[in-house]
Amino acid sequence: MKGLSVNTRGLSKIYGQGRTAVRALEDVNLKIDAGEFIAAMGPSGSGKTTLLNLVGALDRPSAGEVRIGEVEITELTERSLHLVRRHQVGFIFQAFFLVPTLSARENVLLPTLPVGNTTAYERRADELLRLVGLNGRAHRRPSELSAGEQQRVAIARALIMDPGLILGDEPTGNLDSRTGGEVLQLLQRLSQEMGKTFLVATHDPRIARRSDRIVYLRDGQLSPVPTVDITGEY
Ligand SMILES: Nc1ncnc2c1ncn2[C@@H]1O[C@H](COP(=O)(O)OP(=O)(O)O)[C@@H](O)[C@H]1O
Ligand SMILES: [Mg+2]
Predict the structure, then answer these.
(1) C-alpha of residue 29 to centroid of ligand 2, in Å
(2) pLDDT per residue over 86-130, tens digit each?
């Protein structure tokens, strides 16, 4: 699937209620074109994860709308949201979330289990493992792989269903600088080669510098990008 556009309108999220309510996201209007590579930046607690979770239909907004491609996902039933999450969105997390008892290849294939069509997906899994540079490591378990290799497995897993939108929540946050840089290069190469849309929350100025655009959050609201972020002093 080619890249999907993302549009949010008045997107807001409040966790809890009453005196303990946290306004995590407030009136966010974000427009991402199909195929763009966007870095979402901002201090800890500024709402990056909340934004990704709402855009990826992992959570429901308190107010506002999210459109992925032509589909207004805030109107969908749980059942349809399931399908959106499975087929249109790929997630990459800081903590990889691989299943420790499964091989790299089996981890990549995990999202396809409910769908069947095994042979075609196995071929695709092998292709993706090659694409992320894990040729020859397909049968290793996560514990037999380096952190960078584990994140590459997670990236291949995020791509197995051929989604149009890839969401990354600090995907290099658990990696040392060099490995993080390599993973980041991989993400950007994939974005260019596959034409998919990427929205990546990060503190890494290298991701920011090499992305098409930075969106900056401060206290749950979109805000102009401070220049220190781009120069890498953040
Ligand atoms: N499940 C939750 N319940 C209550 N508050 C939350 C929850 N998740 C996040 N928050 C709060 O919402 C704000 C935004 O958090 P988050 O989206 O995780 O920011 P970031 O990813 O930029 O660090 C923070 O104040 C955080 O403490
Ligand atoms: Mg976060």
Answers:
(1) 19
(2) 999 999 999 999 999 999 999 999 999 999 888 999 999 999 999
pLDDT of residue 52: 98
pTM, rounded to two decimals: 0.95
pLDDT higher than 80, residue 229: no
What is the distance in A from the centroid of ligand 1 to the CA of 54? 12
Write the CB contacts of 121 (distance below 8 Å, at least 6 apart in sequence): 109, 112, 115, 160
In the 3-class helix/strand/coil scheme, how is 85-106 assigned residue by residue?
HHHCEEEEECCCCCCCCCCHHH
* Domain at 6-231, CATH from 3.40.30.10, 2.60.40.10, 3.40.140.10, 3.40.50.300: 3.40.50.300
